[in-house]
Amino acid sequence: MTDGDIVAVWNVPMSNQTYKIEFEHGTTSGKRVVRVNGKEIVRHDWMFKLVGREVFEINKKKCVISVDAIGIFAYEYTLTVDGKAYEKFQEQQKKALQVWNAMIDGDETRICLEKDTMDVWVNGSKVNTTGEFVDEGTRTHFEVGKSVCFIESESSGKRKVGLMHKLLVNGKEIEEMQM
């Protein structure tokens, strides 16, 4: 791979992980390569037509990279995920997911809450949880290794904000990761 041919990189947040999509486009050969998290999933070494679409799937969601000419040997690259423009999909995911990175037992651990279902994902795997009603709202309990974790959900008191969620690991609050 030559870095000179990589023309676009997108980071797509999903509940199980954030996927890094790289697109290579050889503007003289028409070569197109799509990589997801460094793994090549689409390759066309020689294509007469320099514009077009590459369709693939990540996490059961259809993705389309469109190559459009915007001038002589100038191209625009756009990503659509699940039928939505990348920016719109990313904004939707920011509202639907809350992600924390926590150091647990010496390992960097990604914990993700799907707000609509209250499913919890740890390092890409959905984990069993137990819900509990408490005075302030709800508490979702789960374990990571030997660590006791829970997500507290309570009303923000503001209609536009809705519920607020915070993660505690062994009694210590973990700061939310910005997507």
From TrEMBL:
Gene3D superfamilies in the record: 2.40.128.180
Protein name: Fas apoptotic inhibitory molecule 1
A Pfam family matched in the record: FAIM1
Gene Ontology terms describing biological process: negative regulation of extrinsic apoptotic signaling pathway via death domain receptors
Domain of life: Eukaryota
InterPro entries: FAIM1, FAIM1_dom_sf
